[in-house]
Amino acid sequence: MESWYELADALAERGWGLLSNFLEAPTLEALHQEAQAFWEAGKLRPARIGHAGQEIRRKQTRGDFIHWWSPDTLSPAQERYWQQINALRVSLNRELFLGLEHFESHYAIYPPGTRYQRHVDRFQDSIERTISCVLYLNRDWSEPEGGQLRLYTDGGEDEVLPRMGTLMVFRSDVIEHEVLPATRHRFSVTGWLRRRPLTPVPVVHA
Questions:
Q1: What is the pLDDT of residue 114?
Q2: Which residues in the chain come in under a pLDDT of 50?
């Protein structure tokens, strides 16, 4: 799937879609090298599960390590990706009227043998995360190496290999998914297009 319009149609019809060449090769390579350097420098922290303030580390459930991007200090490669995601945000708003306003993202690295068990990306009491976006940064990835993203939908199961340049996009609220173990380090940029939080309606007492 190469067209952003086709991607919007796929999101509307089945809840997910992908673009196989979302960024040019030099930017992808720069992102991979940056993530690799952060990993080697120990700048990624073990990912946790749960709400902010109540997060716990549960390696058997989620084994990746992450490094959040700061919108105020983006590297040139991060800035290029951010620009493309913002253009995609505008396109999805125009086609699907989603009201997407913000983007957040982090590097995610899965060491060999780690996984993320089946889950959805949105908490039940929060509507902000609307569209999940995962850009893969893995050179020459082959099926025997594992690491597939497995999606669970009404139509069954689908699996996508984490190949360099593939952008996976899916609904954060309904698409259950998991990351399968791989035989080598698995690199990605994981992020979410977000809506504005709901504003509580004041209660007026007569």
A1: 97
A2: 199-206
Pairwise CA distance, residues 173 & 169, whole Å: 12
For tokens 């989603």, name the residue. 98
Question: pTM for the full model?
Answer: 0.91
pLDDT for the residue 51: 62
What are the tokens at 126?
């929060």
Nearest to 82 by CA among 127, 147, 31: 31
Determine the length of the chain. 206
Q: Report the C-alpha gap between 103 and 93 in whole angstroms.
A: 13
Residue-level pLDDT at 201: 44
Q: Output the pLDDT for position 54.
A: 60
Nearest to 160 by CA among 16, 31, 55: 16
